[in-house]
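Task 17 of the worksheet. Students: predict the tertiary structure of the chain below and write it out as structure tokens. Keep your answer in the requested format; marks are given for formatting as well as content.
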Amino acid sequence: MHNVIIAGTINSVNAIPKGMELLLQGKSALDAVEETIKIVEDNPNDWSVGSGGLPNLLGEVELDASIMDGKTLKTGAVAGLKKYKNPISIARQVMEQTPHALLVGEGADQFASVLCFEETELLSENASDIHQDFLSGKSLVNKPYDAEETMKKKECYFKIFQRLVQEKKMMEWYTKYAKENHGTVNIIAKDMNGDICCGVSTSGLSFKLPGRTGDSPIIGAGNYADNRYGAAACIGVGEIAIRLSLARIAVYEMSKGKTAEEAAILAIETIKDLGEDAGFLTILVMDKEGHTVSAANFEFSIFHQERMHFWIADSLNPIPTKRECLYVDTTTEKEGEGYHR
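Model answer:
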């Protein structure tokens, strides 16, 4: 019987106890990951995940999620979900009830409907206020808002969206914003059987272009798990994680005998290959024994103004413990070729 362990990103601290409870009861890592992430998805004060997530430029919330079973290498994912609040559960059903790995947009919503998931209004009043502030040129999402107007219809946003996109200054600002504003929940768990599962859920980049999909539902980029070696999941600029297949890199490094710490550092170091357009990335890595680390290419969290950290709990210490991420310098050139060259 294996020591159970569960780890998660900054916003998982209040949810991890539920996952640990399930693991100690002998439930699977899959169950623990799903139920833990659902708690974060249901938190209306988390602006980066689930029904509290901030919308795209048109005022619509689009949710992405993926889950991967390290025992079987089976996976399920959804992207652009607009009508259902727990994408992690729908992603699991994609894995278990279909021959597919990823469903997107209307198809993902239809699949959830067929399985009798409850349709939900995803745009919260708070998120609507923030979106209105954004469109009217007020400050960014890391400041409090007290706007009183409620959400307007999608058609009301469209002309504003067109005007903003056509202004060069707006696109320059948006490019910078897209590099710096991200949020996701990552959970990795190992159960009593030694099976590992990794799950990711997000509402994506706030005020993103409609239809934009980041790394969270892309297996190998934002999420990867393999019992033989371990698991990894990412937060940050999804496009960069996709271009690098970042989660898969970390697991691959462990397959070659690297420790979780070495794998995390090596994965983050590959960001150098992309030059100046890289942006912020954090990776959470757990090896097959449960050793867990996180590494980032920025020393301080943009959202929290403190060291990036993650939470971890296990059989011996079931209360979530805070651990700081490793900071990896990706600005200093080193001799040798890049990872992909």
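Marker's comment: The chain has one domain: 5-119+180-327. Confidence is low (pLDDT under 50) at residues 139-158, 300-305.
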